[in-house]
Specification:
The protein contains nine helices and seven strands. The protein is α/β, with parallel strands linked by helices.
């Protein structure tokens, strides 16, 4: 096994102890990610230590903000190559995950990763938030919706909050200071039945990489007309 100290020690600093099996799962994931990246666009980051830090450890860093993650039901919306969902699933095997992405070829990649790593209680599905959030099997069914997707918080809130059950949480990964973005999203969050709880900025262990987790709690049911279709959350944020 390659020197994965940066991942193992970093995970320990956020309270996650990775077994040998889990470490091997990360190795297998890395190898398959890099191999498939040759034939499809999955990530611009491929160097081993960078993937360990900027994808794997960054994904796990969510556990620094969420303490009762074990045994919950989590949706990773806009998962792409599986971040943060796959690393979190490796670290929390008893937590149920649904990974959703709008590109079929990425979903096929994720299903192969799930198979290679022998993961259970995890599903990768093809879907767009505007459509999936209107389906009974997904709407307000999750304890957490998490997303590393790149979009303004008001837009992401409209996509994500409808999936969260009352009392659950939407957690958005943001880079560095996002106070202005949080302020502009507060109206949207309220309309969608959420309440802004916190935006916590900290650095990934032993790095200078700043990461902010925006935590929103779902207090009331989301009105049925949300999320809007036809690209409106992007073009006309609430």
């Amino acid at each position: 096994m390659r020197d994965n100290t940066i991942l193992v020690k970093g995970a320990e600093k956020i309270g996650i102890v990775l077994s040998e099996k889990q470490q091997q799962q990360f190795e297998t994931y890395y190898d398959y990610l890099v191999a498939q990246n040759e034939v499809m666009n999955l990530t611009a980051i491929t160097e081993y230590e960078e993937v360990l830090t900027k994808h794997f450890l960054d994904s796990l860093f969510l556990a620094n903000s969420i303490k009762e993650f074990q045994g919950k039901k989590v949706l990773d919306l806009g998962t792409g190559a599986g971040f943060p969902g796959i690393p979190l699933k490796i670290a929390f095997p008893d937590t149920e995950f649904v990974l959703m992405d709008s590109l079929n070829k990425r979903v096929s990649f994720l299903n192969r990763v799930i198979e290679l790593l022998e993961l259970e209680k995890i599903t990768a599905i093809h879907g767009r938030a505007e459509e999936a959030a209107r389906k009974e099997e997904y709407r307000e069914q999750f304890d957490y919706c998490v997303s590393r997707a790149v979009a303004r918080l008001a837009t992401l809130s409209e996509f994500c909050i409808p999936f969260v059950k009352q009392g659950g949480y939407f957690v958005s990964y943001k880079a560095g200071d996002c106070k202005e973005e949080c302020d502009e999203a507060k109206n949207a969050i309220k309309i969608l039945g959420g309440r802004f709880l916190q935006a916590t900025e900290s650095y990934l262990p032993d790095t200078e990489i700043a990461r902010t987790f925006v935590v929103i709690q779902k207090e009331k049911a989301t009105p049925g007309k949300y999320p809007r279709g036809q690209g409106k959350p992007l073009k006309q944020p609430l």
